[in-house]
Structures are given as C-alpha cells and as structure tokens.
Amino acid sequence: xxxxxxxxxxxxxxxxxxxxxxxxxxVPGVEVTMLSDVVEDAAKSLAADCGIxxxxxxxxxxxxxxxxxxxxxxxSTDTHATIIEEAANAGKHIFCEKPIALELAKIDQALAAVExxxxxxxxxxxxxxxxxxxxxxxxxxxxxxxxxxxxxINSRDPAPPPLAYVKVSGGLFLDMMIxxxxxxxxxxxxxxxxxxxxxxxxxxxxxxxxGDVDTAIVSIKFKKGALCHIDNSRRAVYGYDQRAEVFxxxxxxxxxxxxxxxxxxxxxxxxSEPPIYNFxxxxxxxxxxxxxxxxxxxxxxxxxPPSGGYDGRISVLMGYAAIKSLKENRPVRIEEVDx
Length: 339
Prior knowledge:
40% of the residues lie in helices and 24% in strands. By secondary structure, the protein is of the alpha/beta class. Strand 11 (241-248) and strand 12 (251-255) form a beta hairpin.
C-alpha cells in the first residue's frame, strides 16, 4: 500500500459528516476519494464541503472501486453488519461506527468475514481516543493510582434524540450507554462479569411508550474485582455532561467537563464560569481526529486496532445484560446473554 490511504465514506448523515470532514482535513496521509448516501443532495453538499470528487448513491460502487483502500461505515445501524461483510469480501479495510449490529448472529457473521479476509476492522468508540480518558487509562496501567477498585462514569445528553431515532437505535443501553460500557472496559483494562440495571422514563413519556428508558443507572462487577457505576440521562439542561473517574488503592484519576475557556470570574455576588460544551461534536472533535489517525496507522502498519471487533461484540453483550437485568430486576452475568 502507498503512503496515502484512500478512504470511501458510506453515509452523509450527522456522524458521516464528522468522519468525512475529519478524514479529509484532520488526518495526514488520508484522502477521501468517494462518498455515498441514498440522499443525493446531502452527499453532494458534504462532498463539496470536504473536496471529495466522487459521489455515488449506491455504496457498492465504493466497494468495487480500485481507488478505495478502506471504508468508513457511517450509515444507519441496521446496515452496518451487511456492509462490513461485503467490504471484507471486497478486500477493503473497515472503520465502522458503533454498534456493529443489534443482533449477535449478525455481529458474528460480520466478524467471521473480517477474519476470513484478513482485513482491519476498527469500531468507532471515540471516547477511547479522548486525551483525558487516555490519561486516566495511563494512570491505571502505570500503577500510579494502585489497584483499581471503582469506576464512575457520568454521561448525560443535553436533550433526547427524535422519537423516530429512538425506535430504531436499539435503545439507551445499545445506543447511548454502549459508549460507557466500552469506556469502562478501556479505563479498567478488565472484562465485565455481571451487570445490574435500573431505568425509567423521567424525561419523555413517549420514549417509554416505544419500550425504552431515558434515565438509567447500571452497576457492573468486573472480573478482577473492580466495581463500576454508570449513569445516563437524555436530559442535562446545563449541557453535554461527560465525566469519568477510576478510584484505586493509591489514589484516583478523573476527567472533568470541557468549557470554551477556563476563566472564572469572581464578584461580590459569587463566582461564574463558562457553560460546558453542549454537543458531542464540540466535546469530542479532537477524539474523532485521533481516532482517524489511529485507524490510518493500523491499516498502514497492520497493527490490531485498539477498538476492534471483539470490543464491538462485548459492548453489545453488556447492553443485552443491562436490558435483561432491567426487565427481570436482577443481576445478569455476561455468559447468560452470549448465545
């Protein structure tokens, strides 16, 4: 392979825009050569913004192209596994947004195709590539905070997504908290053993009517003994609330929320500081750029990606366990849902 990695982006929606722009301008040694989306106007507009020369409606044209070394799958969740399998069979390396699929059989079929064709698969768990989270991970691996005993993750969106999206997303545990499941494994460097979930609707009753929750707390027991607490809410009126902490036998390491600047103003009536970021693209754009750089490096060098097929699979199993726990009001072991 040449020093230039040629990527085709599949999907021009919200997350497709993030990756098309990042790969086009934020990742050295990468060129986005093709873009596809069934909505032609969206694809043409994004291509114009990013300087992408070729736009196609059918993503199969990308898979056939000799001008594409790798694909970035940013289409709807229900298409991910199929495109992974087709891309692997076409010999393309693959970056795919989470989750791989909502059904375990589809995940396993896609991963089998990746293994058979010996291509790189990296799953888009962008929070692993956030600098703050990486520093917390380093504090764990270096032994600076001793043996990890607890992990606490707060993840709260400023507002719920559209109901139409909720209906097809897989729900809070497989769409939103899946990031936190992966982050907990990453920070602790350990595997989950048992999951217990509480959840209800406190934000939008309509979410409950389609069988989902908008507020949840999940406790996880990890194999080496650490305990993890994750809370999710679809409504944080003050902004996009993202914090994580690992508490250990010799100390703790944690991340804070991000602000436009760090100036604090003190007056007779008290102190004030700027609001926290209000959306994931503001908060995690540097992480998306780092993610793109790591993917390009893995493809060029043949290295195993930090977030690969196994990580995509186990995070869905953790979501399954949380859903089962919520329904049955009991702790659920991971092997119960790994059919």
